[in-house]
Amino acid sequence: AGIRVPMEAIKMRLQASVTTNTRSAASELWRHGAGKVSRLFVPQTLCHDLPYSITQWMLYEHLRPVLLSKAKSIVDSASEEGKDNSRMRWWMGKAATSATGASSGLITGIVTVPLDVVKTRVVVQSHVDGKVPGFFATGSEMVRKEGIKCLARGGSWRILWITSNSACFFPVFEVVKESLGLDSSWR
Fold it and tell me: What is the model's pTM?
């Protein structure tokens, strides 16, 4: 979180048009003290990242065996007797892993959009008035003033990004695991 938070603070300042470019955002972060910013925003980041990571990995680990089993049955039913189907099995395994990653990303994105919206508001608001508001207090105030729908702002883009990112990340993750000899799934 100590490395990610300053990068996230720069990204959000750019997204909220608080600064005009990366250099000015980084300079501003340095002026305010990157350590201070990290210390202040780590709790907000953890309120977002822990539920996100826990949800996504649990879904991925639960869904992957189910989709791999489906892929294995497709390969087995399409295979000719005595023919080597290891290449088809490998590709179908990666397709199932990609579908699993996309599914876990989609569900996780939907569940965590409100957390991301509140985290972004906390970071932007801290820049405006110089104080870091509490995560839950900010969320409550947003809902009170703007209605529950405000917690879904930007959600469709975030969900699209997470879904496509997860569809690519998890097959690469599994290939790296295989190359390190850490994979115990079917081949």
Answer: 0.73
